[in-house]
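tool_call: predict_structure(chain=1)
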Amino acid sequence: MAEATADQIEGSEEPKKKSKLPLIIGLVLMLVFGGGSFFTLYSGMILAPPAAEDPHAEEVPKPADLPDISFIKLDPMVISLSDSASRHLRFSAELEVPTAYQADVEKLRPRVMDVLNGYLRAVDLSELEDRTALIKLRAQMLRRIQIVTGEGRVNDLLIIEFVLN
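tool_result:
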């Protein structure tokens, strides 16, 4: 019997282990195809509802046409301030006007420059140094320009340069 056990041990070869490579490849392919399928369905590449029925779709509003306006550039001005001879104000601006009134306002440009020059010379230096003064000054100047040119001919005054030296 001892011989039989020895023969059985010698004659029986260990079975070869099966490779795990096909299992690993199968798992990797399953993850890749599963992820790809999820992405195509989630992003709407396939089986997506029509765009008109999408409740989350936002309609982009068409921008309105731009108004028919023109800009008239005023000549730059350097104004010596009344409080001191060494302080100057450098000022330049443009007028926003409807295109229909551009020629009329161009004719009145010297009068507009005179009104602005007279107003800015009369303003106190302490008002000009205030940070919020530009808003008040702009409103005052626009009102004076509208009086000179006529109501409805000048929409706005755009201050390009306002520098105290």
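agent: Residues 69-164 form a domain with the Tetrahydropterin Synthase; Chain A fold (CATH 3.30.479.30). Proceeding to next step.
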